[in-house]
């Protein structure tokens, strides 16, 4: 019996993603091509590896055994790439990086530039993705590295993943310069309009927490999630806002003043990747290293910004 190990990887992907169509993006194949590979595997081994029902597919006992073999082969290939990179000093291959817009602009872009100079055989692919969908794509294999932003104790780290700290991103309160006044404390803004994030967003939780601590309920005049749009509304004089310092890393737009209010808390940015018995692949490892360097550079810029404020 001859078994093509490439088809075991296809079966492993179907098992990991929970279906043929869901496995296709991970394998860079069409769903039809995935089905053809599974059918060919079943002809090779002489037994069904999938139970095909009206609600989708599940693995047969033989399928589970072969999928586990495919997973072990994938782990061995990762180790082979690592050993080859150590011998040759050359790191190559595709890496899919997912993040939210501010992280793409201020962390991923400089990291990709560094990778192009130091490891030109790396093939980065950037995807704007965050939240639960991003975590799902990471754990099921479509995304290799995910930049996650979280507050301590809010969202538990998914099992089977490794998290590498990139930077602490403190919150800042910004106000329109047209208000022509400097708040001495957060309570001084209790009667003013606020530009808030959607319910459940990190900045919305931060504002609600700070308002509770200072004994007022913020007037949510406008709701917006993307920080460039938030800052544009502040610049137009429409309200104050809580934003992470990273949103100001490119400089404050005209009409926006960053207050010197302190003890506002913050979020923590980390690079997450899947955990393997032998560690991250060389391509993932050098990508995370480049992101860490970008994080250190941003931290330096943020420190300078605080000193000027």
What does this structure look like?
- The chain is α/β, with parallel strands linked by helices and 309 residues long.
- It has three domains: 5-85, Arc Repressor Mutant, subunit A (Orthogonal Bundle); 91-168 and 268-308, 3-Layer(aba) Sandwich (D-Maltodextrin-Binding Protein, domain 2), CATH 3.40.190.10; 170-265, D-Maltodextrin-Binding Protein, domain 2.
- It is 45% helix and 22% strand.
- It contains nine helices and eleven strands.
- Strands 3, 4, 5, 6, 9, 10 and 11 form a seven-stranded mixed beta sheet that branches. A two-stranded antiparallel ribbon has the order 1-2.
- Helix 1 (5-17) crosses helix 2 (20-27) and helix 2 crosses helix 3 (31-45).
- The mean pLDDT is 88.
Write down the Rg: 24 Å
Structural class from helices and strands?
A: alpha/beta
What is the first-to-last residue Cα distance? Answer: 71 Å
Give the biggest sheet.
7 strands, mixed
Main CATH class of the largest domain: Alpha Beta
- Mean pLDDT across all residues, rounded? 88
Overall body shape: elongated
The total count of strands amounts to: 11
Portion of residues within helices = 40-55%
CATH fold name of the largest domain, please?
D-Maltodextrin-Binding Protein, domain 2
What fraction of the residues are assigned to beta strands by DSSP? 15-25%
**CATH arch. level architecture of the largest domain:** 3-Layer(aba) Sandwich
Integer tally of domains: 3
Extract low-pLDDT stretches.
none
């Amino acid at each position: 019996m001859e078994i093509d190990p490439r088809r075991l990887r296809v079966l492993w992907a179907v098992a990991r993603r929970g279906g043929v169509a869901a496995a296709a993006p991970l394998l860079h194949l069409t769903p039809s091509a995935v089905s053809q590979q599974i059918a060919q595997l079943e002809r090779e081994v002489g037994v069904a590896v999938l139970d095909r029902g009206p609600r989708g597919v599940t693995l047969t006992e033989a399928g589970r055994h072969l999928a586990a073999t495919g997973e072990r082969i994938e782990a061995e290939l990762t180790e082979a790439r690592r050993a080859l990179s150590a011998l040759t000093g050359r790191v190559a291959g595709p890496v899919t990086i997912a993040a939210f817009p501010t992280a793409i602009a201020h962390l991923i872009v400089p990291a990709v530039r560094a990778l192009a100079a130091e490891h030109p055989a790396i093939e980065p692919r950037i995807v704007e993705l965050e939240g639960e969908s991003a975590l799902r794509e990471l754990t099921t294999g479509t995304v290799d590295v995910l930049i996650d932003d979280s507050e301590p104790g809010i969202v538990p780290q998914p099992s089977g993943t490794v998290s590498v700290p990139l930077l602490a991103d403190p919150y800042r309160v910004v106000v329109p310069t047209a208000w022509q006044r400097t708040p001495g404390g957060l309570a001084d803004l209790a009667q003013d309009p606020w530009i808030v994030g959607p319910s459940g967003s990190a900045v919305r939780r931060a504002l609600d927490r700070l308002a509770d601590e200072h004994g007022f309920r913020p007037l949510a005049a406008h709701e917006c999630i993307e920080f460039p749009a938030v800052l544009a509304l502040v610049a137009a004089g429409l309200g104050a806002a809580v934003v992470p310092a990273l949103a100001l890393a490119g400089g404050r737009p005209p009409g926006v003043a960053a207050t010197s209010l302190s003890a506002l808390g913050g979020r923590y940015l980390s690079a997450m990747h899947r955990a393997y018995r032998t560690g991250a692949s060389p391509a993932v490892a050098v990508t995370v290293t480049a992101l860490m360097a970008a994080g250190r550079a941003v931290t330096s810029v943020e420190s300078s910004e605080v000193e000027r404020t």
